[in-house]
Amino acid sequence: MTKTDDAIAILGGTGDQGLGLALRFAKAGRRVVIGSRKAEKAEQAVLEVKAAVPGADVVGFENAEATAQTSMIILSVPFEHTAGTVKSIKQALEPGDVVVSMTVPLATALGDGPTRTVGVWQGSAAEMVQSLVPAGVDVVSAFQNVGAHRLRELEHEVECDVVVSGKKAARERVEPLCDLVPGLRAINGGPLSNAKIVEEITALLIGMNMRYKLPEGLGIRFTGLPE
């Protein structure tokens, strides 16, 4: 069976940010497949989405099985689990799939604070993911700077721009996902190498959230862009 983008798989959909996206996409009427290292955790997240969004089309599986359901896979796991997660789903990935990397190499992976990033040999976490997926699978960087707290407040818009970086064709498949969340706007971030800049902005925003005591999280906006 040929995969399509009809469903959106979110690996790490049991975490705050991944679950926030699952809630938003489900509310927009899209089919959502939540993935986790343990199927039971994914099924628990499904119950939470259904409780918040009555009638939601959402299912939960272990990560590899979730990946097999669709060609649009969002990777929302901590940096320290990223390589292991990609390796665990490798057999379920097919040419033409798009993997969206939300991963940020925060220094918490090494026991340090979340306001700094660690160096990644490939240049960025997204480029590391690209180096690990099979040939024919494109990685796109997106959604790093969208606050989990704001995603889960379904009655409010999420005021944030989403910088989407990667190959043009793959990027253009991901950008419409932003339209599913009221208040989000996709910004053409160019090639995947620019993901490094966006990932570092996440650490900057975390520090600003702490300094300004904003648990709901700051968003970013780019001004002067044509409508």
The order of strands across the largest sheet is: 3-2-1-4-5-6
Radius of gyration: 16 Å
CATH superfamily: NAD(P)-binding Rossmann-like Domain
Global outline? globular
Main beta sheet strand tally, sense and closure: 6 strands, parallel
The low-pLDDT segments are none
CATH topology: Rossmann fold
The SSE order reads EHEHEHEHEHEHEHEH
Euclidean distance between termini CA atoms = 39 Å
Helicity, in percent? 25-40%
Number of helices: 8
> Got a strand count?
8
Strand content: 15-25%
Q: In total, how many domains does the architecture comprise? A: 1
Folded structure, characterized:
This protein has 227 residues and is of the alpha/beta class. It has one domain: Rossmann fold. The chain has helices spanning 16-27, 39-52, 63-67, 79-89, 125-132, 148-152, 168-178, 195-211; strands spanning 7-11, 31-36, 58-62, 72-75, 98-101, 138-141, 160-164, 184-188. It has a six-stranded parallel β-sheet with strand order 3-2-1-4-5-6, with helices on both faces. Strands 7-8 form a two-stranded parallel sheet. α4 (79-89) packs parallel to α5. The longest helix is centred in the C-terminal third of the chain and has 17 residues, at 195-211. The mean pLDDT is 96.
